[in-house]
Amino acid sequence: MPVIKIVFFHFDSIEYSQALADAIQRMVGWPVVVEPIEFDHSYAYHPERHQYHSSQILLGIKNLIPTDQDKVLAVTDLDLFIPILTFVFGEAQLDGPTAVISTFRLRPEYYGLPKNSELVLDRMIKESVHEIGHTFGLVHCWNSGCVLNVSTYVEEIDLKNAEFCPDCKKQLDQAHLKLK
């Protein structure tokens, strides 16, 4: 069976790794493996913005995929962007093999609030499941409680669930059947 490989790079702590892997496996229904990696991300740096281009990171991590059916989720604490947006919490290749999320703007400290590890983990899970959903071909959902609902602001992440709505879950199950 294919796997979801979670890789951590430029990330100061992997205290969340097992809880994140367990949640993703439960929500998505695929085995998950976790490993830290050495990854030269400097090519994705945009000096004028002081951020990293997430689409370029996706291309760079593509070679970490063991088989054609596997997925890779990169987790970093770098500040990510795409050219048309000020920042992104994450990005994925729609119906492709790779996704990336950043904890940079998921941490309450970024907004001047006290550190809260449980909140960071909750946000990481939601963003990870969201982006992995895209790798299975799922698009944004209009159901405000669905994990695939758009999150432009961190507060929107907090308002939605970590689970797929029934319609998105059905689409995910259909995508799994195609890959088996």
Layout of SSEs?
Blueprint: E1 4-8, H1 17-28, E2 32-36, E3 45-46, E4 51-53, H2 54-61, E5 71-76, E6 80-81, E7 90-92, E8 98-102, H3 117-135, H4 154-159, H5 166-179
Strand proportion: 15-25%
Weakly predicted, low-confidence segments: none
Query: How is the main sheet built?
Result: 5 strands, mixed
Secondary structure category: alpha/beta
| Share in helix | 25-40%
- Tell how many strands the DSSP assignment holds: 8
Question: Average pLDDT value?
Answer: 90
What does this protein structure show overall?
- The strands form 2 sheets. The protein has a 5-stranded mixed sheet with strand order 2-1-5-8-7, sandwiched between helices. A 3-stranded mixed sheet has the order 3-4-6.
- It is 33% helix and 17% strand.
- The chain has a single domain (4-179), classed as Collagenase (Catalytic Domain), CATH 3.40.390.
- The protein is α/β, with parallel strands linked by helices.
Structure summarized in a few sentences:
The chain has five helices and eight strands, in the order βαβββαββββααα. The protein is α/β, with parallel strands linked by helices.
